[in-house]
Amino acid sequence: MQTDQLLAAADILLTEARRLGADAADTVAHFGSAEGITVRLGVIEDIERSETIEIGLRAFVGGASASVSTSDLSRAGLSELAERAVDMAKRAPEDPFAALAPVEALAHAPCPELDLLDPASPSPEELRDRARETEDAARAVSGVSNTEGGSASFTRASTILATSTGFAGAYEGASHSLSASVIAGEGSGMQRDYAARSARHRADLLNPGEIGRLAGERAAGRLAPATPAVGPVPVVFDPRVSSSLIGHLLAAMAAPAIARRASFLVGWEAAELFASDITIVEDPLRPRGLRSRPFDGEGVACSPRKLVERGRIGGWLTNVASAAQLGLPLTGHASRGIGGAPGVAPSNVDLLAGNQTVEELIADVREGVLVDYLIGQGVNLVTGNYSRGAAGRRIVNGRIEGPVAGFTVAGNLIEMFGAMRAANDLETWRAINAPTLRIDGMTVAAA
């Protein structure tokens, strides 16, 4: 019902925009509902339920454009929105690169079946029971002394995009989530950690007991941390945090950043950035994927691709404006909010597993650290300089030992990527996935 309503509203907006003098226009709309329950110490602490419906119009007059959005889907509200957008576009400065996607690049109906919508919606009682079971399992772990709560939530969303060139597409999705955050120890020795999982279908989610137990064991495992040896040592990134390194790569591969020369990858498009056995793939059409979508934020068809092959970047991630500015093809990576110009975002990215087990990967490490918790945002995407607070475990003579905390890991992302080695423990339940990664030569220092 929401999808039909949004498509009808989009048609009204596009018709009105053209009538008022727009040369071209597109509209994006979103309907979302969310329900979540948090339980703390066995008692319901918070209940949330929300519904949002929004629609935005981008109108082009000559080479200028403007975007306006509203939550008023009445005929009068839509007419007013179109009038404001066209009037603003007439006053806006021209942009030689902003435009709609060409017709030949647009996705064709029918869209591929991505199985993003779980037909079963949990009741409030089911969410309460899941949250309570998650927290109970965490509290049952030896060493856990307090809790920040267990949570369960369910969201459902519809997204539509329509253009004055005749494209109209829509897709729906759902997400089930569970999490727990707990504290171990007492007084000044307390340590905190968490566990969380999300999945499109309830059947793909870990059960609450497993998530709670994992949160409790993580917190208890941090008690009585030491400070690791400082200096240049091998740093091993646990899958909990290794995907963040790939996130920095993807941000630097965005064509808008390349066009602004605001990326540390400028000049690296033809060079071997990683070792030749590193491959990074993207699959926006993965069934039940957390970021799956049949078309991007400009209606361009999405398709699987290799982002890094044999250590080399496979090209920048473009939207219409950045592709025009750099003279590149469209790659189906436009991302879109309700208002404003499109950005760039990837979908379902995996750094493929290597051939070694984690034990084999660290077997020759005499002294190093395994990082499973990162703090702060000390990453400069223009220079590639990397420095973040961290916690984890010590590696001694090829074995993972006790907890360590109160240190930073630092390097430069270009050098880090070149030294990166991957274990074989890849899991693909996140939006960005990577196995355990080892990087030699990073600097560990006391925080």
UniProtKB/TrEMBL annotation:
**Residue limits of the Metalloprotease TldD/E N-terminal domain?**
30-89
Q: Which portions of the sequence form the region Disordered?
A: 117-151
Q: Where is the composition biased (Basic and acidic residues)?
A: 125-138
Q: Outline the extent of the Metalloprotease TldD/E central domain.
A: 118-223
Q: Where is the signal peptide?
A: none
**Sorted alphabetically, which SUPFAM superfamilies does this protein's record hold?**
Putative modulator of DNA gyrase, PmbA/TldD
The residues covered by the Metalloprotease TldD/E C-terminal domain are: 231-445
In this record, what's one Pfam family? PmbA_TldD_1st
Which PANTHER family does this one have?
METALLOPROTEASE PMBA (PTHR43421:SF1)
Q: Which family does it belong to?
A: Belongs to the peptidase U62 family.
Q: What is this protein called?
A: Modulator protein
**Native organism:** Tsuneonella deserti
